[in-house]
Amino acid sequence: MGKVILVSSGKGGTGKTMFSVNLGALLAEKGYKTILLDMDMGLRNMDLYLGMENKVVYNIMDVMSGICRIKKAMIQVNGFTNLYFMAASPRRDDRDITPLHMEILCNKLKRYFDYIVIDCPAGINDLFDVALAPTQKAVLVTEPEMASLRDADVTERYLTDHGITDTYIVINKVRADLMRTGMIPSLSVIANMFKGQIAGIIQDDDNIHISTNKGIPIVCKKGTYIEENFQDIAYRILFQ
């Protein structure tokens, strides 16, 4: 049966969709059949980050509301044998979707996929509760910035209160020069804020921004320090 991983953040703009896409790409490249679910209704970006914006016809809300079958909304990502995704609705949707709908969907997807990666909306809201229902493991993507860290801390506490204790922290957009001079919180300070394990840091790098704009996961560029770093982070989250 497949495993469900939720990728979240306390606030928007931390890079959770970028991380979700690259985690899915790494898993697929290792031979694991993987599907990415975009739950960021009205603010979807996953299709852009995968370079698949012109392939979306049906979305995840269409599936959960019964408008179409699961396979109609599953899109195979170009260049990958084992990577699929479901897009979020392009606008806020007033269809009544409950956590049970998400559990049923993921239970069906587990028959076909080794990993289900849910890119959930930032913050804590009704859609977050829906995305949370089938989750077995959670990754919080944050930045070394106090507002982002505080919101991630609140989100981790919420996850714990709802029975999800297998959590990992990824610190994105790290500027080593600012961290060395004490202008932003150090890794030790950040680690002490969370109960979950620090899975790794991702340096602020223009190549990551370029890859998301081009719709190509950065981990597809082999032999770079970024790809190797993502490999290490994914290993800590999935296999340690």
TrEMBL record:
Biological process annotations from GO: division septum assembly; negative regulation of cell division
GO (cellular component) term, any one: cytosol
Keyword Transferase among record annotations: no
Matching InterPro entries: AAA_dom, MinD, MinD_FleN, P-loop_NTPase, ParA/MinD_ATPase
GO molecular function: ATP binding; ATP hydrolysis activity
Gene3D superfamilies attached to this UniProt entry: P-loop containing nucleotide triphosphate hydrolases
Top-level taxon of origin: Bacteria
Keyword Signal (UniProt): no
PANTHER family in the cross-refs: SEPTUM SITE-DETERMINING PROTEIN MIND HOMOLOG, CHLOROPLASTIC, SEPTUM SITE-DETERMINING PROTEIN MIND HOMOLOG, CHLOROPLASTIC-RELATED
NCBIfam families: minD_bact
Function per UniProt: ATPase required for the correct placement of the division site. Cell division inhibitors MinC and MinD act in concert to form an inhibitor capable of blocking formation of the polar Z ring septums. Rapidly oscillates between the poles of the cell to destabilize FtsZ filaments that have formed before they mature into polar Z rings.
Family the UniProt entry places it in: Belongs to the ParA family. MinD subfamily.
Name of the molecule in the record: Septum site-determining protein MinD
Organism the protein comes from: Lentihominibacter faecis
Highest classification ranks of the organism: Bacteria, Bacillati, Bacillota, Clostridia, Peptostreptococcales
This protein's encoding gene: minD
